[in-house]
Amino acid sequence: MIISNARIVLENEIINGYIEFDDKKITAIKKGKAPQSNYDAQGCYLLPAFIDSHTHGGYGFDFNMLINNQHQQEMLNYLSHINQEGVGSILMTTVTCSDGDLNAIAANYKNIKKADIKNVIKGWYIEGPYISIAKKGAHNAKLIRPIDLKQTKRLCQMLPDVTKVLAVAPEFKNNLRKYKLVNEKFFLATGHSDANYREANQSFDLGAKRIVHLYNALPNFDRRHPTIINAIFNRRDLKCELICDKEHIAPEVILNTYNILGADQLMVISDSLLTKGLQDGSYHIWGNDVDKRGALDYLHGTNQIAGGNVPYNKQIENFGKITKCSMCDILKISSLNAAKSINQAKKIGNLIKGAESNFVLLDEHYRLKATFIGGRKI
């Protein structure tokens, strides 16, 4: 297969040319006119398919459902919908739950991957229970607890070869002391945290190189009493998740963040919930009654944000229009940085020979024009 007449977006340059691939991998990337073509990109920008590295689900499905194998069809429906959003890879993200549920999901992972025939799920993001009650958001406070080394060891024994991201609040009940003991088996993320400047930097130095949805469920920047946000702004070795629905974070703050941290440190996430794609109304999620109102979910009867519902491609479009960034920066914030954060940039998030044959075509206004998954246009 060949996509011709494309502006091919690489990490640091854009070339005019064509890409050759089969149903699994890229076989060649070349400049100039293609000798033949299966699809004319008509000058659109060709990028790797998006990576949504923090998503709880959508379209009636939630990853916390996967304590058994009874929700496989709902999962496949969800994966099909996000392919339509240009997403080729995700980290399945669960929220705070019991050890029994964590173990059940781990035991079911083999069945999950067997059903995932397009290989969309690239790992498991465990967002809780080792977070802060003070910054719990929509998580169940009764199930939040400090790092349990026996439990983390059990998960690693059950899933030794699976990519696992673990969210932790360093300041909560001596979690920081356990970072070294879990860092080798998990990609650590700092978030849902009330950490001060010192605690945050300690967590980063001990291996937590990812920030859970920057600004959300974190303290504010403080000019006199530095917080985790102040610490983040002084680092150049982090990857920060950013929700770009224009509701979780104001457009002006998205622009501030891009100007302060740059594209190399940002990765757009959806943080989508079961309600994405469903009608406005009341739903029951994670033991909470939640009201879906437009782009956001709120804890019932409050203005406490529980999650978002904006399709991933629209969030990328929002980021581009707000920042007026280059397509090389779009590549970074939509796929490459997420792939680097889990050491998978040779397989996904990158247009190189041997990488997966998952692509998107964008126009000059950052709008999604076509998606290819497994070498086929969908």
Q: What does the model show?
A:
This protein has 378 residues and is of the alpha/beta class. Helix content is 26%, strand content 28%. The protein has nine helices and 22 strands. The chain has helices spanning 72-84, 99-115, 149-158, 179-183, 197-205, 228-233, 251-261, 312-323, 327-341; strands at 2-9, 14-21, 26-31, 39-40, 45-48, 50-55, 57-58, 61-62, 87-95, 121-127, 164-168, 187-190, 210-211, 239-243, 266-269, 281-285, 288-293, 296-299, 305-308, 359-362, 368-373, 376-377. The strands form four sheets. Strands 1, 2, 3, 4, 5, 20, 21 and 22 form an eight-stranded mixed β-sheet that branches. Strands 6-9-10-11-12-13-14-15 form an eight-stranded parallel β-sheet. Strand 1 and strand 2 (14-21) form a beta hairpin. Helix 2 (99-115) packs parallel to helix 3 (149-158) and helix 7 (251-261) packs across helix 8. The longest helix is centred in the N-terminal third of the chain and has 17 residues, at 99-115. The chain is globular, with a radius of gyration of 20 Å.
